[in-house]
UniProtKB/TrEMBL annotation:
Gene3D superfamilies assigned: Type I PLP-dependent aspartate aminotransferase-like (Major domain), Winged helix-like DNA-binding domain superfamily/Winged helix DNA-binding domain
GO molecular function: DNA binding; DNA-binding transcription factor activity; pyridoxal phosphate binding; transaminase activity
Descriptive protein name: PLP-dependent aminotransferase family protein
Protein source organism: Elizabethkingia bruuniana
Domain of life according to the entry: Bacteria
Keywords of this entry: Aminotransferase, DNA-binding, Pyridoxal phosphate, Transcription, Transcription regulation, Transferase
Lineage of the organism: Bacteria, Pseudomonadati, Bacteroidota, Flavobacteriia, Flavobacteriales
Amino acid sequence: MSSPDQFLYKKIIYIDKKSSRPVYLQIVHQMINAIQRGYLMKGMKLLGTRNMSIILEVHRKTVIAAYEELDAQGWVETIPNKGTFVIESGSTKNINIKTPKRQDLATYPQQTGFSFRQSNLLDNPFEHSSCTYIFNDGVPDTRLSQIGNYSSFYSANLKRKSSYKKIGYYNTEGSEYFKEHLAQYLNLSRGLHISKNNLLITRSTEMSIYIISEILLSEGDMVVVGDPSYFAVNMIFQKSGAVIKTIPVDEEGIRTDLIEELCKKTKIRMLYLTPHHHYPTTVPLSAQRRIELLSLASQYGFAIVEDDYDFEFHYDNSAILPMASSDTDGMVIYVGSFGKSLAPGFRTGFIVAPENLMTEMRKYLGIIDRQGDIIMEQALGEMIAEGEINRHLKKSAKIYKERRDLFTNLLQEHLGGQIKFSIPSGGLAVWMEWQSPVNLFQLSAHCQQHDLFIPRTLLYQNKDFTALRLGYGHLEEDEMNKSLQILRQANESLKK
């Protein structure tokens, strides 16, 4: 009974009886694959169902079902009293048929057969760990989010008949209702003077920066950022072909005198900054330097991208209004996130810009995120309208202020004398510098061995400083104590 044909079928069809996919479909899919790759040629007669069932060690009815499915899909034709024949072929040329290896058809290719551009610029810099204690760069505590309360807004919108049409059609403009209320919210809380036509709703700050980069940046354009600065945004700028120029940041924010000197020597296309609390050092940009930057932008014609990533978190005084609120010449593109203090699924990003730029941005959003989440946007709009957002922010700001005070006290208690830091006026992180250099990678590794994870994105070390950006917002008192205790012990062990 052995024949070359039977040997071929054993090679091209592999049945995994542990798979949830029906056996007859496994046969169908692999035979189609074999036809497409030229192993089973047009006009070739397939084995009879009885012989095929013996070779594959399956019931004959399973093979019959597979042949019927192949016939229905137009790959084979069954002729009474003659047999079943291949009528389609993946090859239009007479090719030499190679004997397939089992992995040719039983598994998916591990690599492409063609070349393509690869870049390490967009490698994921974020790390994960199963450690009990983790420091991050300053994110809210999801345990403070009243998810049930917020989900009720979403659920109510989903059940409304008026929402069905919105789900079925999305025009990349997003929810007009949400944009109207978000514009009012931003005008009242941040001193802006915008309408819904000045808003673009995105998924995140990173998406916002990507869209801006695609429109404004060309190969070789210079982008100025603070030193140190936000690594993820820098990667986006570099992927756009921009040249990044770093300018030092001191206790008043980015050095405007050095920016002015640079403008006199070369053309700047864009300045990216986080003036409310500079990332990562948490230093606010002084009022005088804000005025100077707006003046320089108008004089030299560069765009300012103002990332207000943590406006919602301020404690000691009234929040400093964004630079965009004082921009009269259309030089500032304002980027932020809404609902950062809510559960992750309820957050969204936004861009504020003049209408002519907004028109172009909508084109890009229509390509990369055409569908969006209009029901979520509608729910967020209702949360603004009903005051739910303000109530939550007021409540959570009180808790985060208490955590900031507690964390800075504990930081002084555990590491005082070895470090220096300033108590931030807002945000959810502390910038901590060592008085004497410490190998941060060794410190992080030692901490991880003792159940505390410090991602490499929080480590800042050069010839001028050795520092950590430590987020505290997600930690309760016992977690802060334990985390800082491990950090202290790791620091002491490196000195021995």
